[in-house]
Here is the input.
Amino acid sequence: MARKLTLTLLRELQDEIVSCRACPRLTRYREEVARVKRRAFREEIYWGRPVPGFGDPAAELVIVGLAPAAHGANRTGRMFTGDRSGDFLFAALHRCGFANQALSRSRADGLVLRGAYITAPCRCAPPWNKPLPVELQRCAPFLSRELALLPRLKVILALGAIGFRAVLDHLARQGQGVPSPRPAFGHGVNIPIGNGRQLLASYHVSQQNTQTGKLTPAMFDAVLGQARLWIDKTA
Here is the structure.
């Protein structure tokens, strides 16, 4: 019964996210991208709306990214689906047992996350991949409500500094364990956040990081390995 209620509440929240038009700049941009399209995808119908989180409602690991890519999730309607960042992420999740397959191209491609959930602090594709502070503030309640609906959560993995700050802001709003002074973002940072939970940090899986070698598969596997060890330790 608890699982059925969680699913219902998550779906209701996802529907609310998809219908959001709170940020005029982001609304204009995501819809313009969906109308103009990239030449390689000109025959496709773009999603062009806010993108909700997705994954296992019994997730013990939550991955917090940045925002939908203009021609990735803004096209496919699912986080990290249909772009190079997703290729890197899902291959790693598959290697570590958090996904049933290593590639994700569409919402109907059969991808299933196992014990993991993926979300972001900004639900609309932002120009130049840079949401404004006020836009992140408007979106913040969605992240807090989403995390609250995942009762088995043990590890939050933040990808990049913006995702890391968004998680710390969420914890502060909830009166949960935020260390003082507030920790700085860094790849491999590992912070206890109360209630037996951990916050991990990694460089974002963006092409800018993965193609330059700033973030390698081995580096990311090591962070996911930390998450797996903590989840298994607290089972």
Remarks:
- The chain has one domain: 2-233.
- The CA atoms of residues 85 and 141 lie 25 Å apart.
